[in-house]
Write a structure and sequence with these properties.
Elements (H helix, E strand, L loop, with lengths): L1 H49 L4 E10 L2 H4 L7 H5 L3 H13 L7 H9 L6 H11 L7 E7 L2 H7 L16 H12 L3 E5 L2 H4 L12 H32 L4 H13 L4 H15 L7 H26 L2 H9 L4 H29 L3 H5 L20 H9 L4 H32 L4
Antiparallel strand pairs: 1-2, 1-3
């Protein structure tokens, strides 16, 4: 009788345990599904808003490159060509196109139609003439960058059903653009400006080149400083440092630094590098040094774990063959631990690439229209560029914000993929 009761109790306990395990598995699967749904939603939101930024609207106009306006004396002097009134040539072309469409005051009409082109349209025409001086005296079809509002109009992001006073596209502009489109003089091309230009006040002229170079310089400085210092510190703490209160204190603080908010490192860089050592503000050099401070604990901790994971027998075998302690570490232990160390380094630098707060504190939030040439030149970084564009109320900057996020995600995914590849390719199983 008692045996039967014990079996029933054991069976009920086993059944309850199995049910708990099944529920736990269900919870785990549900958590994964929820995470995947959120991730997919995030990617869909970003890509749906940002992909259109990789396309740019162009307006093609027939421009009569009148010699009397460009080079009256025919000298082909570069200074004369630069100072010519190219805006007049564009206005004459717009007037010719609009002649049969509108019965308006000419001055107001041209002022209205000018807005369909980028403010640098005259510079585009000037550069074309300077590069092709044989065009002078001829009529050429010239492709101009459309203004940001016109670009948004052709991408279907401006509601033309609302009253004219409440939208940025006037009825005159709409009629004129529809006429040009019917004549095949509106086309959409790949937006090279996004990759070949730096920041600009005009959305259609803004690009990420300066921010990408600034991020590259900052990451380069961070890597050159943090990698050797981090690996050296890990080797010393793991293999040479005596276990006492001082080393315990150092280890505790290294672990604590890994959890410190990144903005604290920005405040540290502001106080030390800028205020104390008077280093250049907004420079990738300072940004890289701040990111190096932030990355150091994220390199030291996995590097120590990788060195510790190497079997002690390998080191002992090297010592038994006559190698010194340093030789056993550098020639045997470190090469075997290097794949895991490299993984930690890449992940640490990838995290540094996406940091914004510490760079804001050292002035890399400034508007920098120029591309930095040196590590001491003023520059911004890609995540900071995203932050600044996101704060701009213009509609066109919204899609460029998402496009910059896509570019940043590409670099982050690439770096993390390299880390995964290195771990799977070279990791040793002990």
């Amino acid at each position: 009788m008692s045996s039967t009761i014990n079996q029933d109790i054991a069976s009920s306990i086993s059944s309850a345990r199995i049910n708990k395990e099944k529920r736990f598995q269900i919870y785990g699967v549900a958590a994964l599904l929820f995470a995947m749904i959120m991730l997919v939603t995030l990617f869909i939101t970003i890509f749906s808003k940002g992909l259109s930024a990789f396309i740019q609207t162009k307006v093609n106009l027939d421009i009569e490159l009148t010699q009397e306006v460009i080079d009256p004396e025919g000298s082909r002097d570069l200074n004369v060509l630069k100072q010519a009134n190219y805006q007049k040539l564009i206005d004459d072309s717009l007037k010719l196109y609009a002649l049969n469409l509108f019965d308006k005051d000419e001055k107001e009409l041209i002022k209205n139609l000018r807005m369909i082109l980028s403010p640098i349209a005259y510079l585009e025409l000037r550069n074309l003439v300077i590069d092709n001086q044989d065009f002078i005296g001829k009529t050429k079809k010239v492709s101009f960058i459309a203004s940001d509002d016109i670009d948004q109009y052709f991408k279907g992001k401006i509601d033309m059903s609302i009253p004219e006073d409440d939208r940025k596209i006037t009825d005159i502009q709409e009629k004129f653009l529809d006429d040009l489109q019917s004549k095949g003089q509106i086309n959409k091309v790949f937006n090279k400006t996004l990759f070949t230009k730096s920041d600009s006040r005009e959305a259609e002229l803004s690009g990420v080149l300066g921010a990408v170079i600034g991020s590259f310089y900052s990451l380069l400085i961070a890597g050159l400083l943090s990698i050797p210092i981090g690996i050296g510190a890990a080797i010393y703490l793991q293999e040479f440092a005596k276990k006492n209160r001082i080393t315990n204190f150092i280890e505790i603080n290294i672990n604590n630094l890994a959890a410190v908010p990144s903005i604290v490192f920005g405040l540290l860089g502001l106080a030390i590098f800028l205020n104390m050592f008077l280093m250049p503000r907004s420079a990738p050099l300072v940004g890289g040094m701040v990111l190096a401070l932030m990355t150091l604990p994220k390199i030291i901790i996995p590097a120590r774990a990788a060195i510790l994971a190497v079997p002690e027998s390998i080191k002992q075998g090297a010592l038994a063959l006559g190698a010194s302690h340093m030789q056993s570490i550098m020639h045997h232990v470190l090469p075997l631990a290097m794949p895991a160390i490299l993984t930690g380094i890449i992940i640490g630098l990838a995290q540094a690439l996406g940091e914004t707060a510490p760079l804001l504190m050292i002035g890399m939030i400034a508007f920098i229209p120029d591309t930095p040439l040196y590590i001491t030149d003023p520059a911004t970084a890609l995540p900071v560029q995203i932050f600044m564009w996101a704060d701009n109320p213009e509609r066109a900057f919204v899609e460029r914000t998402s496009a910059a996020i896509i570019i940043l995600l590409f670099f982050l995914i690439a770096m993390n993929s390299i880390a995964i590849y290195l771990r799977q390719k070279f990791e040793r199983k002990w």
